[in-house]
Structure formats: structure tokens, C-alpha cells
């Protein structure tokens, strides 16, 4: 008599998506009433001035968020069928580690200096390079395969490096112009994270729709979408705002960098926190799927991905509440980093049910939604705008170096396990919390008084 073993594939309940949607809707809809009641002198969200609905600040904000959403869709489009596409292109599982190492190596040795280039040639030009890079990769993947796929990997890694700083620095530089309000930057920062998360979910929808039911024949279809979106982005940027022209030579930039960045330990603490966050997020995205499917568990990863990004959107909507409640940004960041570190510590050393893991993953991303605009706000308070891109890109270099080291230890030498990598990410987040604590104790510095939001 045979024994039939029933297997089931775990998937999140539809009530999870409903809860995230309703929570985000309530957070966005109730906040204007709270603001008008507790801070009547302030303008309501999503507006620049009650008598000037189409002022330069609001026009640029709408234009910028549209461009940023296009860029976010491009960033997420290539990862929809990432591992399957690697296998389809003839890259074995053993070479996947090398594939990741090449990408992070390009980000470390080349991408780390793109921020300096951006500050020197203009932030908008670097954003344009981002779209041009995706256009080239999309065309290349449509007409070629084999070794060129490795070059495409390098190009996409460099494009991701540009994405991490260029759009933020461009937005800050534009708001620093006459006629633009500085305090609208807080709104722009959290809206960036909100629209980015929504766009990443949209990229999954677009990718699945274009591939359809035949994976082998439709695997190249996302390249068509990437070419179209990159073309739209290039056209919109070419016909939009002029951007910020070059303001200093490399010699002047280097002297200013030494004077403001290297001489101020507050900025060092901020850069360290940014590096720790980048490191933990990278480790998470490398290992979240293997953690869920450990021991042969079957999971619909495509349904869990929107849960995490939805939680990230919800976390971003908490940012304006905390800022309006006059909570100090360093305190918010310290508690958020500690929460993330505790979550990763539990994930690293405790075997859990899939539902519990997904809940922890979602809470982790909710914290990310709060942390990213908070760090951007601190950078505006502490870092000169003309040095912002260089600081962000250089601060990510230690994180990329740490990821390279751990990938080599895990992939080639087999000296550590996945749980150890997650534990290192948790330690990094505890370090970030410590940086925020020390930054709070240091107090304000002169530059903050000039750019108080």
C-alpha cells in the first residue's frame, strides 16, 4: 500500500495585502487633518503654498517623482526573473557567486567614485547616464547573449550605484535654488521611498505580464520594456529642468571635501550608519529567498515580495508623523536600527514558521521605509549640498567591500553559513544605532543651522 504525501505551497493571506493597503491609506488621509489641528501655521502635505498651487517647488516635485518612478521600475525590472535568467543564459549555480562578486566589485572599485563625478559635472547629467546605461543594456540583451551578459551585469551594477545617490542629490540641488522651499524636501524624501516601493511592485507586474506563460520564449521580453522606459526617461529629462551646472574644479572640490567631510566626525558617523544599512539590506536580499525555502519548504516568493515592499511603503508614511511630532531624527533612527538588528538576530539563529519569518521580513522593511528618508534628512542638515553625492557613494564602499568578503567566504571557501552572514548584518545595524546615539550626543554643528528643515 503506497503512502501519498501531500505538499502545500505557502502563500500569504489576501488579508495581509488588505491590511497594508488600508493602513497606508489611513496614514496618508488622516495626516492632513492632524497637521491642520496641531500645526495650523504649516502648509498641508502635497502642496507648496495655499495661494500658489503650481509653484516651482511643487512643479519640480511632481516632475521629479515621475522620473524617479521610471528609474525605480527599471531597477526592479531586471530582478523579476533574475536567477532563472542566469540559468537561461548558461550561468551555472557555481558561477552565480562569481556573478554577484563581479557586480559588487564593479560597484566598489568604480561606482564608489561616481558621486564625486556627479558633484563635478552636474547631478542631472548623472541621472541621464543612469537611463542611458539601462537603454544600452536593454538593447544589448535583446541582440546578444553569452559573454556579453557578464558585461551587462557590470553595467547594471554601476547603474544601481548611480541610483543610490544621483536622484536624491539632484532633488536637493534643485530645491536649493531660488524660488524653491527647503522645507518641502522632507515631503520629497518620504515620497521617494513610497513611489520607489510602489514602482518595484509595478516592475514585477510588468515583468510577469510581458513574459506570460512561456518563460523560455518570453524571458527576453523585459528587455523590451526596459528599452521603452529608458527612452521615455531620457526624453523627459532632456525636455525638463536644466539641472545644476558645474560649480567648482576638482582641486576646489578636493579642498572642500577635506575641509567639511574629513574634519567633521558627525558626518563620519552619518556615513558609517549609511554603510551599515546598505550592507544589511544587500545581505537580506541575497539570503531572504534561501532562508524561506530552507529544508525544502515551498513558498510563493512572488507573493511575499509585494508584502515586504508594501510594508516599506507603510513605513515611509510614518516619517511625516514623527517629524511633525517633533521627535528628534537621531532618536527615531536609533530605535529603528535596533529593531532591525533584533529582527535579523532572531532570523539568524531561530528556525521559525514561514508566517513568522514573513512577518519579521515585513517589519524589517517597514523600518527601512522610515530610515531612508530620515537619513536623507540628516544629510541635508549636516552635509554641504555640493559634496553630497561624493559622500554617499564613498560611504557605500566599505559596505560593498564587506559584502565581497562574505560572499567569498561563503561561496568559495565555505567557511561561514547563511546564518552567520545574517548575524553580521545584525551587528552592522547595532553599529548604526550606536552611530546615531553618538551623533545625538554630539549635538548640532554650524552647517545644520543654515539648512534647518
Automatic annotation (TrEMBL):
<protein>
    <recommendedName>
        <fullName>Molybdate-anion transporter-like</fullName>
    </recommendedName>
</protein>
<feature type="transmembrane region" description="Helical">
    <location>
        <begin position="96"/>
        <end position="117"/>
    </location>
</feature>
<dbReference type="GO" id="GO:0015098">
    <property type="term" value="F:molybdate ion transmembrane transporter activity"/>
</dbReference>
<keyword id="KW-0472">Membrane</keyword>
<feature type="transmembrane region" description="Helical">
    <location>
        <begin position="332"/>
        <end position="351"/>
    </location>
</feature>
<keyword id="KW-0812">Transmembrane</keyword>
<dbReference type="GO" id="GO:0016020">
    <property type="term" value="C:membrane"/>
</dbReference>
<feature type="transmembrane region" description="Helical">
    <location>
        <begin position="420"/>
        <end position="439"/>
    </location>
</feature>
<feature type="transmembrane region" description="Helical">
    <location>
        <begin position="62"/>
        <end position="81"/>
    </location>
</feature>
<dbReference type="InterPro" id="IPR036259">
    <property type="entry name" value="MFS_trans_sf"/>
</dbReference>
<feature type="transmembrane region" description="Helical">
    <location>
        <begin position="16"/>
        <end position="35"/>
    </location>
</feature>
<feature type="transmembrane region" description="Helical">
    <location>
        <begin position="149"/>
        <end position="167"/>
    </location>
</feature>
<feature type="transmembrane region" description="Helical">
    <location>
        <begin position="390"/>
        <end position="408"/>
    </location>
</feature>
<feature type="transmembrane region" description="Helical">
    <location>
        <begin position="300"/>
        <end position="323"/>
    </location>
</feature>
<dbReference type="InterPro" id="IPR008509">
    <property type="entry name" value="MOT2/MFSD5"/>
</dbReference>
<keyword id="KW-1133">Transmembrane helix</keyword>
<feature type="transmembrane region" description="Helical">
    <location>
        <begin position="267"/>
        <end position="288"/>
    </location>
</feature>
<feature type="transmembrane region" description="Helical">
    <location>
        <begin position="188"/>
        <end position="207"/>
    </location>
</feature>
<feature type="transmembrane region" description="Helical">
    <location>
        <begin position="126"/>
        <end position="143"/>
    </location>
</feature>
<feature type="transmembrane region" description="Helical">
    <location>
        <begin position="357"/>
        <end position="378"/>
    </location>
</feature>
<dbReference type="Pfam" id="PF05631">
    <property type="entry name" value="MFS_5"/>
</dbReference>
<feature type="transmembrane region" description="Helical">
    <location>
        <begin position="219"/>
        <end position="238"/>
    </location>
</feature>
